[in-house]
């Protein structure tokens, strides 16, 4: 079992470019989440999906969109990247009444 | 009301010492309080967690103390080891839309010197 996988591991973008961060899980969990981690800020929730077919905004959704493609996959899209979106992005999953399990992260730099 | 305040921001202890991390919250709707450990270049991983109907939980060298009336909880690491050097996050969970949302503290970087 791979658990939670994220692609790519690293990415450099220029301001205004777009990209999609991919997350997949093989744990058959219903809920999936996207966080960003910035130095001294902890982890902040961008979007989450309680179950297949639903998505909701978190604390910092501006500039991002998400797609819950199926139960396994939850993608995060930056339509027009900005330097303020330079961060490490983590995907997480959760089964009912259980804790959240995090992926290894994607380190994104926007120039 | 959604904040979780964590202190200190960093801590250096000697091997064998006790590390203590404190967190405080305001929202009484929080119903689950996990601690996550993160090593450089890795994702956070659950270390230990507690629910508010329990005042203390111990797992090996790690103990959570929970004070519901004060809205505070803390992590104690006994006999700290160099391998414990990592960043520690407290969090609080709130039910939301059929799932849960975690609110994280800002983290504490622990260094354990040999």
Question: Which helices and strands, and how do they pair?
Answer:
The complex is a heterodimer of chains A (111) and B (114).
Chain A: E1 4-7, E2 10-13, E3 19-25, E4 31-38, E5 42-49, E6 56-57, E7 64-68, E8 74-78, E9 87-94, E10 100-102, E11 106-110
Parallel strand pairs in A: 2-11
Antiparallel strand pairs in A: 1-3, 3-8, 4-5, 4-9, 5-6, 7-8, 9-10, 9-11
Chain B: E1 4-7, E2 10-14, E3 19-25, E4 33-38, E5 45-50, E6 56-59, E7 62-67, E8 72-77, E9 86-96, E10 99-104, E11 108-113
Parallel strand pairs in B: 2-11
Antiparallel strand pairs in B: 1-3, 3-8, 4-5, 4-9, 6-7, 7-8, 9-10, 9-11
How would you characterize this protein structure?
The complex is a heterodimer of chains A (111) and B (114). Chain A is mainly β and 111 residues long. Chain A has no helices and eleven strands. Chain A has strands at residues 4-7, 10-13, 19-25, 31-38, 42-49, 56-57, 64-68, 74-78, 87-94, 100-102, 106-110. In chain A, strands 2, 4, 5, 6, 9, 10 and 11 form a seven-stranded mixed β-sheet that branches. Chain A has a four-stranded antiparallel β-sheet with strand order 1-3-8-7, with no helix packed on it. Chain A starts with a strand and ends with a strand. Chain B has 114 residues and is an all-beta fold. Chain B is built from no helices and eleven strands. In chain B, strand 7 and strand 8 (72-77) form a beta hairpin. The mean pLDDT of chain B is 94. Chain A binds chain B through residues 4, 30-31, 33, 40-45, 48, 50-51, 54, 56, 58-59, 90, 92, 94, 99-105, and chain B through 2, 6, 9, 34, 36, 41-46, 49, 89, 96-107.
């Amino acid at each position: 079992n791979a658990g939670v996988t994220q692609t790519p591991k690293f990415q450099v973008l220029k301001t205004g470019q777009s990209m999609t961060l991919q997350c997949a899980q093989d744990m058959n969990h219903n809920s999936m989440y996207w966080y960003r981690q910035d130095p001294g800020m902890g982890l902040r929730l961008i979007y989450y999906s309680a179950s297949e077919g639903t998505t909701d905004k978190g604390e910092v959704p501006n500039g991002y969109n998400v797609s819950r493609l199926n139960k396994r996959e939850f993608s995060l899209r930056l339509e027009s990247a900005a330097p303020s979106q330079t961060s490490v992005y983590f995907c997480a999953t959760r089964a009912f009444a259980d804790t959240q399990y995090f992926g290894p992260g994607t380190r994104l730099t926007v120039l | 009301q959604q904040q979780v305040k964590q202190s200190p921001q960093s801590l250096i202890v000697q091997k064998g010492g006790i590390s203590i991390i404190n967190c405080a919250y305001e929202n009484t709707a929080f119903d689950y309080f996990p601690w996550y450990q993160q090593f450089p270049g890795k994702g956070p991983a659950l270390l230990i967690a507690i629910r508010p109907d329990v005042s203390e939980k111990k797992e090996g060298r790690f103990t959570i103390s929970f004070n519901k009336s004060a809205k505070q909880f803390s992590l104690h690491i006994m006999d700290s080891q160099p391998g414990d050097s990592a960043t520690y996050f407290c969090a609080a969970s709130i039910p939301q839309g059929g799932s849960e949302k975690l609110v994280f503290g800002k983290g504490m970087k622990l260094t354990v010197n040999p």
